[in-house]
Amino acid sequence: MSLKKQLAELDVKLKALTFRTKCSDEVIEKGEKTAVERQKESIVAIVSTINILKGNIEEAKFWAGKARELELAKNHDQTLKFEKQLLEQKLEAAIKTKELSENKVRSFRPAIVILEVGTNDLSHSKPEVVGSKIDDLVHLLLQLPYVQIVGVCLITHRAASPEFNRQAFILNQYLEVVLDGVPNVFCWSHKGFLQRVKSPFLPDGVHFNRRAQYTLYRSYRGAILKALASLPSC
C-alpha cells in the first residue's frame, strides 16, 4: 500500500476511534455488559490497527527519505563528474592554447612583444581573473630567451558601456599594480580616443572607426618605440 493510501486509512481510523470514544460513555451508562465488551473490543481493534498503520507509515517515510537521499547523492555525483569533465576539458584547451601561443612566438622569435589582450575575456570573467591570466602570460613570455621587452596595452573604454568600463578600470588598475616593478615590462595606455569631438566608434559602440584605427596604430607605434628605447645596447 502506498504512503498516501496508508495516511488516508489512518485518518479514517482516527476518526472512527474518536467516534467510538464519544459513544463509550453512553454504552457504559446503559450498563449492558455485552455491549460494553463489544465496545471495548472495537476500540482495542481500532487502536491496534492505528498502531500498525503508524509503524508502516514511519517505515515508509524512512525508506522514502533514504530513496530521496540516494537520489540526491546520485545527482551530486553526476554533477561532480560533469564538473570534473568540464574542468579537464578547460585545462586541456588552456594547455593547447598555451602550446599554440608558445609555438607562434617561437616561430617569430621576437625581441619585443606588445600584448593587446583581455577585452573579450571581460564579458565572461572577473577583471582580477583576466588580470591574473595576463600576468601569467607576461611571465611566460619573459622566460623565452629571445623576448627582451613586453608591453601590455591597457583596456580602452567603450561608448555607453558603464559596466564594461567599470570592469576595464578595475583590470587596468590590477595590471598596473601587479606588473609594476617587473623588469622589462611596461603598461601602455592608448590615448586620444575619448577626447575627440566625434565618436571614435562604429555604431556598435565597440569597434573603432577608420579614423580611430589610425590613432590606434599610431599608439602601437608609440609602444614599440618605447620598447626599442628600453632594449639593452648591443
Structural notes for this entry:
The chain folds into two domains: 83 residues; 122 residues, 3-Layer(aba) Sandwich (Rossmann fold), CATH 3.40.50.1110. The protein has 234 residues and is mainly alpha-helical. The model has no long low-confidence stretch (mean pLDDT 78). Strands 1-2-3 form a three-stranded parallel β-sheet, with helices on both faces. It has five helices and three strands. Helix content is 68%, strand content 6%. Helix 3 packs parallel to helix 4.
Task: List the topology elements.
Layout: H1 3-30, H2 33-108, E1 112-115, H3 127-142, E2 149-153, H4 162-178, E3 185-188, H5 210-230
Parallel strand pairs: 1-2, 2-3
Helix pairs in contact: 1-2, 3-4
- Overall mean pLDDT stands at 78
**Helical content class:** 55-70%
Return the CATH class of the largest domain.
Answer: Alpha Beta
Instruction: Name the strands of the widest sheet in spatial order.
Output: 1-2-3
Tell me the number of helical segments per DSSP (H or I, 4 or more residues long).
5
Per CATH, the superfamily of the largest domain is SGNH hydrolase
Name the shape in a single word: rod-shaped
InterPro entries: SGNH_hydro_sf
